[in-house]
Structure prediction request, 371 residues.
Amino acid sequence: MPVEIKPIQLPADVNAFINVWFDLYGSNPNWVAPLKFERRDFLNPNKNPYFKLANIQCFIAWKDGKAVGTISAQVDKGYQSVEANVGFFGFFEFTDDEEVARGLIEAARDWLRGQGMARMMGPFNFNTNHECGLLVDAFDQDPLVLMTYNLPYYPAMYETLGLTKAKDLYAYWLENNGPVPERIGKLADRFMEKHPEITIRSFNLKKFESEVAIAKDIYNDAWADNWGFVKLTDEEFQKVAEGLRPMIDPRYCYVVERNGVPIAFSLTLPDYNQVVKPMKGSIFPFGWWHWLTMPKKINQIRVFVLGVRREFQYLAIGAPLYKRTWDNGREAGVKGAECSWILEDNFRMRGALEKMGAKIYKTYRLYGGDL
Prediction:
C-alpha cells in the first residue's frame, strides 16, 4: 500500500503523534524515552505559549495501516525578522523507508509554501530555544538532558531527500578527573582579584520568580546577535523556567553581579536523562520510584546556558564560572560535563572550552533546503 500523510489536530491527536516515536525507538538501547505527560503538555496549544507565536501543522505518515513517521512544519513569526520567508520543520521521525521520509518532508514543504515560505530549515522542535539538530555521529551514546537523539540512518536519508547542511552544533565533553586545569584556575583567580566589583552567587530557589526575571533579561540580551536566535517572550520564558525548575541545583546555577547589578548567569543541569531513561516514558507504575531515588546517582552534568550581557562580553567572566562549576561537580562526584550546544563558528567559546581540555564528542546538524 502507498504511504498516506495525514495532517493532525492538536491536542486531540497528540497521543497518536507521540506513540509513533515509541514504536520507532522502542528497542534502541541509547534512546531516552521522553515523559509522555511532558510531551503532551508541550504539544498542547492551550498550554504552550509558543503556539501563540507560530503557525504550526503536524503530520503522521501511515503505511499498511500502521503509523510509521511524524513531522511538524512551523512558521516562527519571531524568526521572520531574523530571516524572512524561512520556515522550520521538526519532530521528523520515520522508519528506514525513503517513501515514508519523502512523503513527510514533502507534506511539510507543501504546507510551508502555502504559508508563503521560500526556504525550510530544521530539525527544530520547535525553534533554537527548544531541542534542535540532527545527531550525525556517536549513535552509541545516550543523549544528555534536553539534547536530541536519532537513529543512525537519518543523516543519509536527509541527504537523499535533498536537504543540505546549514550549520553544525557541537557538544564538547570535559572529563572531571582532577582539579580544574591550572591555566583556567589561575585565570579565574586573577579575574576575581582584578575585579572586586564583581561577585558570583548561587541561584536562589526561594526567590524563583525574581531570579527567572533576571535570567530572562540577560538571556535575551546575551544571545541577541547569535545565529538563529529568537527572543523569548515573558510567557514563554516562564514556561521554560517552570519546566527546568525540578532540575535546577543551586550548586551549578549562578548569577554574576557587578556592583550589585546582574550582568551574567550560568545554568548547568544535572543529567536527568539518567533518571528519565529507566522510567520508559511514564510515571506509572514504577517511574515515580526512579524519579525519587535516582537523582542521587546522577554522575554527569550539562553546561546548558552561560550568558553575559553584550556590554560586558569583553570580560573573562566564563573562567570563574567554569571553575566554580568544576569544583562543585568534583565535590559531588561528577565524572564529567557536556558543554552544548556550541555553534561551529563560535570560535571564542570553542577556544575557551578547548583550553580547559574539552573535546568535541558529538555533532548535531541543522539542514536547509529551498522550497
Remarks:
- The chain has two domains: 4-165, 174-370.
- The chain has a mean pLDDT of 94.
- The domain at 4-165 is CATH 3.40.630.30 (Aminopeptidase).
